[in-house]
Amino acid sequence: MKKILVLFFFVGLLYADIFAPSLGILYNEAKANLGKKIFFDNRLGANENKSCETCHNLYWDFSGTIRTNLQNNKINPPSILNAALNYIFFRNGDHRNIYDQVLKSVTSKHELGVDKNEIITKISNVNEYRIAFLKIYEDGVTFENIVDVLVEFERAVLSVNSPFDRFLMGDSNALSEEEKIGFELFKNIGCVACHNGINLGGNLMQNIGAYEEIFSNMDSSRIFKEQIYKVPSLRNIARTAPYMSDGSILYLKDAIIHIVNLQSIHNIDKKDVDLLYKFLLSLNGEYPRILK
């Protein structure tokens, strides 16, 4: 038990100051714009009534996800905004490459649900697409090229220049005093152990409730045998309700209380929740240029 507690302590110290501003990713504009058209095209879904945007909304509320859950309220689609900055993809973290993520998202029966040959045929039958692919790729429409343009679009939908980004780049006035206090609280109570790096998440796996299990005298040998999940990014978190992988929490403040109770040894009061909430608001970035 003591070894586990020491491990969590040093993990917190290790990541305590590892943050980086999001400055965007270089991408091929022609590929990204073609990927954008495909991303929004309902004709490409299995029944020609669903697109990538169906589950990853980028215009109505600028969340990169949807407000309602899919598959009998069991799946809460993650935001696509800033997903290209992640190191780990999907809830169970079984993909570590954005190309593999797009491939699975297109073909999985739980997502867009089309097989490789089907989407090649559908895109080839649209003159605009066929011509556009030939302008960019010598071999025109192939499944690999379809994946490639969707990846380039994901690279383009980064929401940068948040107040927190500007603060990290040296603008001490980018955050209010309450937001700065919330940031210090975020670090001090251990949120930073899981939510760190450029995306404040998306780069490691965690057993939700590990701290609670440790301090409830549970058999320590069981703790890391439990199912672990990808830690989500906190960028634009205020825009991406509902929360948790099953969408079971509707409001961000409730999500803060829930996670702190599960993951931290600290008790927080209403004032602390408000401060953490205000800090998280500072993670809202600007509209990506490709969507303007």
UniProtKB/TrEMBL annotation:
Which compartments is it annotated to reside in? Periplasm
User: Mind telling me how this protein is modified after translation?
Assistant: Binds 2 heme groups per subunit.
In terms of InterPro entries, this protein maps to:
Cyt_c-like_dom, Cyt_c-like_dom_sf, Cytochrome_c_Peroxidase/MauG, Di-haem_cyt_c_peroxidsae, MauG/Cytc_peroxidase
* Co-factor remark: Binds 2 heme groups.
What highest taxon heads this organism's lineage?
Bacteria
In this chain the Cytochrome c domain maps to 177-284
Entry binding sites for heme c 2 = C191, C194, H195
Q: Name one GO cellular component term.
A: periplasmic space
Keywords for this protein: Heme, Iron, Metal-binding, Oxidoreductase, Periplasm, Peroxidase, Signal
Which cofactor(s) does the record list? heme
Q: Which residues bind heme c 1?
A: C52, C55, H56
Q: Identify the Gene3D superfamilies for this entry.
A: Cytochrome c-like domain
Query: Care to name a GO molecular-function term for this sequence?
Result: heme binding
Q: What is this protein called?
A: Cytochrome c peroxidase
Look up and give the organism this protein is from. Campylobacter pinnipediorum subsp. caledonicus
**Organism classification:** Bacteria, Pseudomonadati, Campylobacterota, Epsilonproteobacteria, Campylobacterales
